[in-house]
């Protein structure tokens, strides 16, 4: 009985770690297609090449503008259905990030469910990353840490839990940088303006387009391209499409992501951004409230990790 309990905790911890350090992968793997085919067709037909070029220039400038931002808050909702899985995995989380000069964030996972059932110990999870240390908070940890709900994972422990080194995991998290997200969208050859819309009280211009995963990966640094392509290949995703809402300051207000109809793996993600360059404080929880991550066996070698 104890063996199965430990095994369950290992799997839970891996999913939590993946949530925290792979937010960028969540966005990338969730594809990009918010608008309907009819809406996309009307925009492309109405503008021709000049409209596509003008829209592409707006997206490029938005990526450049976003790369200068120091902080941002984001709300993410995602749903993923993989063939053979017992049901769709749904997640809702909120994050406040300091992107420069060094990545740091605090995150709350409001809900994680599979097949409509909440996953114990993960809904309500809180995470803080500062320097090269990740802190996680959940009532599920108290039984293993002498009553302390926060646990601490160093760079080495984090790498062991995921089977990757910390720098690789950090690269994945950095892909969640809004400027990188918008930069990927510049791979589209059919991006076009949909219209003017209000997002969270902010006037924006809505753009939409499609792209192949190869085109998108080509926009990433060389060391990330192969890993990104392999991730898509495992999921059987070949084509992505997206919707992007850009505000009057050339900053993204929202990015919607979805796989095309008929895809075996279905992914649907929406990220809404706010509070650009507003003060964000990220600090470790008090030491008295933190316990060490329990040492569990063979964290990096369990099949399927």
From TrEMBL:
Output the SUPFAM superfamilies linked to this UniProt entry: Prokaryotic lipoproteins and lipoprotein localization factors
Signal peptide range: none
Going by the UniProt record, its keywords in alphabetical order are: Lipoprotein
Q: Which PROSITE patterns match?
A: PROKAR_LIPOPROTEIN
> Which InterPro entries does this entry report, sorted A to Z?
DUF6612, LolA/LolB/LppX
Going by the entry's taxonomy, the superkingdom of the source organism is recorded as Bacteria
Annotated region Disordered: the residues are: 283-305
Report what the protein is called: LppX_LprAFG lipoprotein
């Amino acid at each position: 009985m104890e063996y199965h309990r430990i095994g369950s905790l290992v799997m839970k911890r891996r999913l939590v770690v993946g949530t925290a350090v792979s937010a960028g992968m969540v966005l990338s793997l969730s594809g990009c297609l918010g608008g309907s085919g009819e809406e996309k067709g009307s925009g492309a037909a109405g503008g021709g090449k000049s409209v596509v070029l003008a829209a592409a220039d707006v997206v490029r400038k938005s990526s450049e503008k976003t790369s200068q931002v120091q902080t941002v808050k984001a709300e993410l909702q995602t749903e993923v259905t993989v063939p053979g899985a017992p049901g769709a995995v749904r997640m809702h989380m909120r994050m406040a990030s300091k992107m420069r000069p060094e990545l740091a964030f605090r995150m709350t996972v409001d809900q994680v469910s599979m097949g409509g059932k909440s996953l114990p110990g993960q809904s309500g999870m809180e995470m803080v990353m500062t320097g090269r240390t990740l802190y996680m908070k959940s009532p599920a940890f108290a039984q293993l840490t002498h009553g302390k709900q926060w646990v601490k994972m160093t760079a080495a422990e984090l790498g062991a839990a995921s089977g990757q080194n910390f720098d690789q995991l950090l690269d994945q998290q950095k892909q969640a940088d809004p400027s990188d997200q918008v930069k990927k969208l510049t791979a589209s050859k059919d991006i076009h303006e949909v219209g003017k819309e209000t997002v969270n009280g902010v006037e924006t211009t809505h753009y939409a387009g499609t792209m192949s995963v190869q085109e998108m990966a080509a926009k990433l640094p060389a060391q990330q391209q192969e890993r990104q392509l392999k991730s898509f290949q495992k999921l059987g995703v070949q084509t992505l499409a997206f919707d992007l809402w850009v505000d009057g300051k050339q900053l993204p207000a929202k990015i919607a992501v979805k796989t095309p109809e008929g895809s075996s793996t279905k992914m649907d993600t929406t990220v809404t951004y706010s509070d650009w360059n507003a003060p964000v404080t990220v600090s470790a929880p008090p030491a008295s409230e933190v316990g060490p991550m329990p040492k569990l066996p063979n964290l990096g070698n369990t099949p399927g990790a």
